Every structure is written in C-alpha cells, then in structure tokens.
Amino acid sequence: MERFKNGKQTIFWGDAIEALQKEIEDNSIDLIFVDPPYNIGKNFNGSQEKWSSSNEYLKWCYNWIDLCLSKLKPTGSFYVMTATQFMPYFDIYLQKKVEILSRIVWSYDSSAVQAKKHYGSLYEPILFCVKDKQNYTFNTDEILVEAKTGAKRKLIDYRKNPPQVYNSKKVPGNVWDIPRVRYRMPEYENHPTQKPILLLERIIKASSKENDVVLYPFSGTFTTSYVAKQLNRESIGIELQDEYVKIGLRRLQIADEFNGEKLEKEVRTFETAKQESYSRSQTLFGNEKQK
Ligand SMILES: C[S@@+](CC[C@H](N)C(=O)[O-])C[C@H]1O[C@@H](n2cnc3c(N)ncnc32)[C@H](O)[C@@H]1O
Fold it and tell me: What mean pLDDT is reported for the chain?
C-alpha cells in the first residue's frame, strides 16, 4: 500500500478493503461516496471485474460496506452505487444498519449500447444513507434548483392568505438528470466508468461542510476527490490500478510525475486533429508569406 498526500488530499494506491482495514480510523469520516465495480464485466486497465457468482460479489460488497460504516462518524452520510440488479440487495442489507433517506436515480440521455429487443438502461441507482436521521449534515441552500412549475410559470398558491407566488427554487427530487461524461467533454479522462463532476458537486455540497473529510474507495479517475478539493474538503481516495492513480495524482495536483513518467492529460483524437490542422495552416500561411 502506497500513500500520496498533498495538503488535504490523500491517495492510497492499493486494495480498498485493506486500506479501509489498516489506514482509516474508525468514526473519522463525514461523508463516504462509493462507486465500486458493478460485477458487469468492465475492463479496468486490463483487469476484468467479474465475480464467480452474484453471491460472491455481494459477499465482497457487504465486507466493504461494513468497513465503511465503521469509519463513518455518527453524524456522517453514506452514498453508494451499484448496478440496478444488485441495488435491491444493498438496500435490504443497509436497511438493518442505517437510515436510507433517499433512493436516487441518476438518469442520463443514452446508453452506450442501444438496446433493440428490450428497454435500454438509462439510469444508475444511488442510495443516500445516514447513521442518525436526527443529526446529519444537509445543506439545503447549497443545492437548490429551479422549480419548473411554480414561480417560472407564475403560478399563484391560492391556499395561502393572502395568495402567494410559488417558490422559484427547490431541493432536487430523487431523479437526477445529469449527462454522462463524454469523450469530448473537458473533464473526460481515460476510464470506462468516470462519474460526472456535477453529480459529485451536488452530493458533496449537500452532505458535507468545508474542511470535512470525504472518503472515496474505488476512486477511478478521482472525481469525488477532485470536487472535494475544489470545495475545500479533505479527501481520501483509494484505487488499485496504477494508471488511474496517475490520473488522481495529476488531477489533484499531488504530483506531476510518477516513477519518472511525466503526468500529462491524454491528448484526445480531436485535439490531435485540431493541432495537426493548426500546424498545417501555419505552414500554409508561412508558405504564403514567403511567396
Ligand atoms: C466504477 S469505477 C470508479 C469510477 C470513479 N467513480 C470515477 O469517477 O472515475 C471502480 C474503480 O474501482 C477500482 N477497483 C477495483 N477493485 C478495487 C479494489 N479491490 N481496491 C481499490 N480499487 C479497486 C477500479 O480500478 C475502478 O477504477
């Protein structure tokens, strides 16, 4: 297990269960966001995540879920994702241990594979849980969204005396329409299941305060740690694959090189094309001038 740290941001390079067992103090974390492998055969840097059976996968998950809960402060919040087919098991397991306050649907515009003979999957579920429903952080004012009915349509609530215009802002409901990270988006990194900054912004703003500690096992491209840093929170990320640890080190500005390799954002194909056409136009322009 290797540890990298710069100011409030820490990365552990190694197995999440081992890091949770050995490196993180009990009752020390304010917010945990877990986006684990889903047991659907994704390829993470050459390693295919697929367990021998659903039961084996769930056994593994229950292990890190219990560890996470032991790390969470009594006032802490726990957000967890998994594939739609496994979420009911997580839900039933967690009902006995914490208060599940929201069952969130992260919905997006299109699936990578366009289904032809069934209804394509256009959402991923997220559970929002707390240890104590009388005492937890929820910063309503930080996450308000426009209330589409109500003030925008200038509806009047005639039940009030005197009648009043409806509120123009509201706390988001539990269906979150947020686009997936696309190849051409500035935040894109080379990872098959990168989560959007907007998704993590809402979660971190709602469920933590400045200087709180955010724990992020299975960090991938370290989206949660990146957003935590922008919002002046502490973050602890854990990732197994060196290629993704390198993304984290760069994204969090912990290091600009790794084992002698300079850490630079991968150039995307359209950027190369742009660069090439720019160079070509410069050459042409240069040639014109010489004539
Ligand atoms: C669903 S992805 C996380 C994506 C991330 N939320 C993001 O925004 O980029 C799961 C990650 O867990 C990592 N992983 C798999 N097994 C692990 C383990 N035992 N310990 C730590 N990380 C692991 C994979 O390499 C992968 O990057």
Answer: 92
